[in-house]
Amino acid sequence: MIQAERLKVNYRGRSVLDDVNVNFEPGLVHSILGPNGCGKSTLLKTLSRQLQGESGAVYVDGKEVKQWRTKLFARQLAMLPQAQESSADIRVYDLVSYGRFPHKGWMQKMDEEDKEVVERALELTGMSSYADRSVQQLSGGERQRARIAMAIAQQPKVLLLDEPTTYLDICHQLEIMELITQLNRKQNMTVIMVLHDLNQAAHYSDRITVMKQGSVIAHGCPEDIICEEILLDVFKVRASIELIEDSGRPFIRTMSLL
């Protein structure tokens, strides 16, 4: 369980998060939605200890995040920030092996168990055949899968993803979303991610958190959260929504500006 209680975060003299209260239940796929600048990425960074709140607290398994030792915390939670172009000319295998750092002592080399974990992470992400390639030679989708493989090699209980499908074409977006679903179902990994595509969030998420102006205004199942009232209030758009017959999930058919 990850909990944020009365969390307030300031950045450069401006309040970015204000009295945020939200629980992310374990074993589920969570998506955080909201307009640009509402605090989605800031919340993710605060959950992962990259940012510290002015007041309030974040708890992982009932223990405040600032009380965790760094390596033990890294075994609980892995964070992938927004994808950026990498100038490092390294092999995919070496990138993925970085995920083993939380499990090693100072200057301790990888052993057979570490190598098995890395190879398993490559296999899970479909990157085994790319192990000896340079990261620079990968496409955007392949590079994102390699980054996720690195996070899997960390063996966390929780995976945080900040806009994992940004800059990818629709084929690679769906590829990444399906991979995230598999990690959740087969590895029982809790996933918390920031998304912009509302229909992707509705289709792939068990829970959706909606933010507006630094506060959480809704949290629940997709069929309860993706509704005309919230889209109008938060995103300032009128929408036509229908439920998909097979899944019961909401689908936004059309949107128009106010």
Topology of helices and strands:
Layout: E1 2-11, E2 14-24, E3 29-33, H1 40-47, E4 55-60, E5 63-64, H2 70-76, E6 77-80, H3 92-97, H4 112-124, H5 140-153, E7 158-162, H6 170-187, E8 190-194, H7 198-204, E9 207-212, E10 215-220, H8 222-225, H9 228-235, E11 237-243, E12 250-257
Helix pairs in contact: 4-5, 5-6
Write a brief caption for the model.
The chain has nine helices and twelve strands.
Keywords:
33% helix; six-stranded mixed beta sheet; alpha/beta; four-stranded antiparallel beta sheet; Rossmann fold
If you had to describe this structure to a student in words, what would you say it looks like?
This protein has about 260 residues and is α/β, with parallel strands linked by helices. It has a single domain, classed as P-loop containing nucleotide triphosphate hydrolases (Rossmann fold, 3-Layer(aba) Sandwich), CATH 3.40.50.300. About 35% of the residues lie in helices and about 30% in strands. It has helices at about 40-45, 70-75, 90-95, 110-125, 140-155, 170-185, 200-205, 220-225, 230-235; strands at about 1-10, 15-25, 30-35, 55-60, 65, 75-80, 160, 190-195, 205-210, 215-220, 235-245, 250-255. The chain has a six-stranded mixed beta sheet with strand order 6-7-8-3-9-10, sandwiched between helices. Strand 7, helix 6 (about 170-185) and strand 8 form a beta-alpha-beta unit. Helix 4 runs antiparallel to helix 5 (about 140-155) and helix 5 (about 140-155) runs parallel beside helix 6 (about 170-185). The longest helix is centred in the C-terminal third of the chain and has 18 residues, at about 170-185. The radius of gyration is 19 Å and the shape is globular. The chain starts with a strand and ends with a strand.
